[in-house]
Amino acid sequence: MPTVTVGDALVHYTRTGTGPALVLVHGTGSAGAELTWGRLAPRFADRHTVIALDLSGTDRTADGGGPLTVEGLARQVAAVVEDAAAGPADVLGFSLGAPVAAAVAASRPELVRRLIMVAGWIRTDADEYMRNLFALLRRLGDLDAGAFGRLLTMTGFSRGFLNAVGRQGVEDLVSNVPPTPGTLRHVDLDARVDIGPLLPLVRARTLVVGCAQDATVPVTCSRELHAAIPGSAYAEIDAGHVAFFERPDEFVKLVRDFVRAP
């Protein structure tokens, strides 16, 4: 598997498919790209070169283990785009990956053709709900791994989806994101996100996707993100935080239509 060195990190990524480059930036969790994009990447690979990287904090990317920053992770994304000879690329970021993707577009505009931010937000400490949610997750990560996974599952998926997958399906989801040291590094960064100063620098055509039933990043945060980027497009999916698990067909069509539009 290809890797690229960025500072003290050896960043792992995969590259599949053919066509214009689509870079996928995952959210919180040490399983990284495989857990987030494993089901979805093949659906884009028939028309795109799909590049999915593992940011610091994941199992596949080794680094010094220090505190993470949005800007530092953005440098990792930019380095992968350059290493894969994929720029300018369409960059899609989910959850924590959304502010990271925005930082790439702001700092390295020559590398980003189009920007897609799914379930993203501008600043954590401006929202008491999110500030307290991440503080609770950080505390549960230290005290109760089962409760940590259960809270992430309850806030990550809509009630209808959880009922549809049933009890065993829910229990499987609970075990998907254990509070590993890397995951807790992500949660720590979640609590410190502030990309307000970067947004005026975004020049790429941008699509902001909100999730109407999102209990991790309330949909109002996506609407605020859209309002802060002049000329951006906006769409909502009637699903929980991980909307592409709940409504994959709708999500794939939305992204494809946006990146193919003239």
From TrEMBL:
It comes from the Bacteria. Residues 22-253 form the AB hydrolase-1 domain. Gene3D superfamilies: alpha/beta hydrolase. GO terms for molecular function: hydrolase activity. Pfam families: Abhydrolase_6. SUPFAM superfamilies: alpha/beta-Hydrolases. Keywords: Hydrolase. This is Alpha/beta hydrolase. The lineage of its organism: Bacteria, Bacillati, Actinomycetota, Actinomycetes, Streptosporangiales.
